[in-house]
Structure formats: C-alpha cells, structure tokens
Amino acid sequence: MKDIEVTKITGSVPSTENLPIYYDLYFPENSKQDNLPVILFLHGFKGFKDWGAFPDGCRELSKAGFAVLAINFSLNGVGESMTEFDQLDLFARETLSQDLEDVGTILKALKDKDITAQDFSLDTNTIGVLGHSRGGHTAVAASAEYPEIKCLVTWSAVADYNARWSDDMISDWEERGVTEIKNGRTGQIMPVKDVVYKDAIENADRLMAVKRVRELDIPALFVHSEGDEGVHYSEAEKLYKHCSAEDKKIELIPDSGHTFNTAHPFEDEEFPEEFATVLSITGNWFQSHLK
Predict the structure, then answer these.
(1) Is residue 196 part of a domain?
(2) Helix axes of 273-289 and 54-62: crossing angle, nearest 10 degrees
(3) Do the domain assignments include residue 175?
(4) What is the pLDDT of residues 10-56, one digit of tens each?
(5) CATH of the domain at 22
(6) Is the CB of residue 54 less than 8 Å from the CB of residue 70?
(7) What is the pLDDT of residue 1?
(8) Is position 140 within any domain?
(9) Of 56, 211, 222, nearest in space to 130 by CA
(10) Average model confidence (pLDDT) for the chain?
(11) Strand order in the sheet with 149-155
(12) What are phi and psi of 145, to 5 degrees?
C-alpha cells in the first residue's frame, strides 16, 4: 500500500469546557471510494496523538480505505507544541468523564461536518474506534455510550481503571488532594488531583471498561502484548471474557512491550515487526467489520 498517498488535515474543535481538542485527519488522497468510513484513534495516559509511531500507524491504516481521526484529549496536558507536556494544570484534572465527553464532542463535530476531508465525504454513520492503553479503556466506554460507533479495537487496554490506584496515591489524595507521578521518558513530575480519582469512583458504572464492555453488541477486537510491562495481558482477557458481543476476538502478541516495541520519538524507516503485525490485524478487523 506504499503507493497510496495519504493527506493529513489538522485542526481543533472546542470541548465542553471550550478547550481545544486537537486532531489530525488522515485520508487516502487517491482513493476511488467516497463516503469514507472513519476510525477514531484515542491515545493513552501520558500520551498524545503524535507519540512515537502512532502518526505513521494512523497513516498506514488510512491507506486501507479509511479516514483516521487522531485526537488529543482536551485535558491531556499537551498544548500547541503537540509533543510537550506544557499544560500540567490541565493534565492534573484529566478525568475519564471528560475524555468520554471529548469523544462525544468529536462525534458531533463529524456529524455536523465541522471536521471534513476536503473533497471526500465521510461516512459518519460508519465509525470505528481504536484506543491504546487508557485510551482503550475510554474506547470501550465510548462504544457503549455512543451508538454512532460500530466497531471497536483496543491496544494494550486497561480493563478497570479503579483497580490501578495504589494505596499511596489514595493516601495522597485523601491527605493533600493531589498525588504526583514521574514521567519516565521526560523526567517531569506530573500532578494528578483527587478530582480524577473521585470522578472514576463516583461514575464507575459509566466509566469502567470492564462494566461497559458487558453492554456491547458491536464487533470487538482486543489486542495485547504478552510482554506488556505496563498493563498485564490479563486485562485484555478480562475484557474479552466479559464482552457481550457475538463477534469478538482477542489477539495476544508475544515478545513485545506496552507499545509493541515502538518508542518516542520514532525515527525508523520501518515499523518493528510486532507493531506491523498489530497494524495488520487491526486493519483487517476494520476492513471486515466497518465497511
């Protein structure tokens, strides 16, 4: 598919708080198909749409005949730089509820044609969602929340975010109202306020993937690495087990990490074999179930 040219359009739409939700829209320029199905890509915790190999991966998926819309959640802490955590005040209060609302905002923007692909029309009735890690957790909740979503793929998804809060984090929130985590890549100390924890606990029935996955009746694929050091592959097994969809599948990738052997920045000419495999599996799933 290397001979297929892909165009990227960048922009933003306002969130429910009137903060920008930045996006990149990829679509195959010389596609003979109009009314392109849309795949929405959701990044994970301490992530962003321009992380590592994700942009190249979105471009590759687009070559298969999709418009791929990658977004930055409005509170993810990355501003106009697109790659630096320069808005830690926003990151500190990035709730799962707001992430879910951002997905709803994006879906409405697609319906209202506030996000368009120039000369190509987008099939806003045929939308798939692809989420990585925490973004996979949100993708599950969004698939249950929004009927516009017709197909789901998760990469390295968390099943139950409320099971990830450590005793130390909870103590910090109870005593100080904030906990701090270190970004291993940048060395930044990143605050997380108690509103994040309270939101997840108080709205668990709406927000927890392991609960919402029971509501799904759309095709669902759960991809995970058996060597994932950040989110154990049993999380994918849990989501698969509890998923109520008749058309569901789990794919476990051996010998790779949380991001399938990719890193940031990604400067290689070729994808690592494991990430290429994940892209192929993902593209085949969407081609089979979204078109």
Answers:
(1) no
(2) 40
(3) no
(4) 999 999 999 999 999 999 987 667 789 999 999 999 999 999 999 99
(5) 3.40.50.1820
(6) yes
(7) 52
(8) yes
(9) 222
(10) 96
(11) 6-14, 20-28, 67-71, 36-42, 122-132, 149-155, 220-225, 248-253
(12) -80, -40
